Amino acid sequence: MAFRVEHCRKATEFFIKFNTGSKAYLQYAELPNRVLDFQHTVTPEDQQGKGVARVLVKEGLKYAADNKYLVQPTCWYVAKYLDGESATKEEKELDIRHKL
């Protein structure tokens, strides 16, 4: 299933709206020195287990890479994704924990 990820800079979140009226999102904060703090992911209960959070994280990482940001993975899910096997080498290189 393909999900359409939208980005609202004003609300500092990447999100997916579902036909049910619910919304999944990845909230972030922009920190000094071109760092995005990926703080929180939320997936509605009826959408869990479908890869929604993963899609949001990948889109957030793509945005970070395209705009020359590093990422601080405060959210446990983002940290788990970056530490796991499915993150690409390029995605892992965005992780500020590996730059310290």
TrEMBL record:
Task: Tell me the ranges covered by the N-acetyltransferase domain, including all copies.
Answer: 6-96
Q: What does the similarity note say? A: Belongs to the NATD1 family.
Which Pfam family is one of those matched by this entry? Acetyltransf_CG
Q: Which InterPro entries match?
A: Acyl_CoA_acyltransferase, Gcn5-rel_NAT, GNAT_YJDJ
Q: Please give the start and end residues of each transmembrane region.
A: none
Q: What is this protein called?
A: Protein NATD1
- Annotated organism of origin: Caenorhabditis briggsae
